[in-house]
Amino acid sequence: MSLPSSNAGVVAPKKELLRGCLVAAAVAAVLLTVAVLPAEYGIDPTGAGRALGLTKLHSAAAPPVEAAKSAATPAPAPKGSTVSAPGEVRALTIASKQTVAYRADTQEITLPPGKGVEVKTHLAKGATLIFSWKTTKGEALNHDFHGEPVNAKGDEFESFILENDVSQSSGALIAPFTGVHGWYWKNKTDEPVTVVLQASGFYTDIFKK
Predict the structure, then answer these.
(1) What is the domain count for the chain?
(2) What pTM, to 2 d.p., does this model score?
(3) In terms of domains, do 136 and 181 share one?
(4) What's the pLDDT tens digit per position in 148-176?
């Protein structure tokens, strides 16, 4: 009587184990495709997740994530006003809080015959200066309202109002840079001319140069 081969009882279980692993892997792949991807990530390649209502689980979980993103992202800056007066083109708005005390000054400046005189103020960037001046007898002068930065070199300056043969002038400035800003008058006559200057704003001093 022959005995059964000793390998027969071993080979069969190995085949069953391999078959079981393949079946388990197939089931896992199906679950991943049909259930996990639609529910967790909103990915539904077969359409079964939508049919089973699993994609709704992802949609329900999405708002808190989006809310967290919104909370971490700064809100966009509000758009500037676009209002304007009828028939006008809106100008650029320039406004700033002032740290220097408001002041107002009136000065009389005498220009010698054929000579020029400068009067200046110290203004910080964004500070406002308003002025009005006129000659006492209506004499005509050349006028240059200008400014120059701190430690300016040579001809490093900017003229804001430049005019010839005027006996009075008025204006306002919001300083585009920190520096000295003010007036230059040139007396073209053979007699002394007196200028009365009224200035106000947020400058630290006013002086004759």
Answers:
(1) 2
(2) 0.60
(3) yes
(4) 998 888 788 999 999 999 999 999 999 99
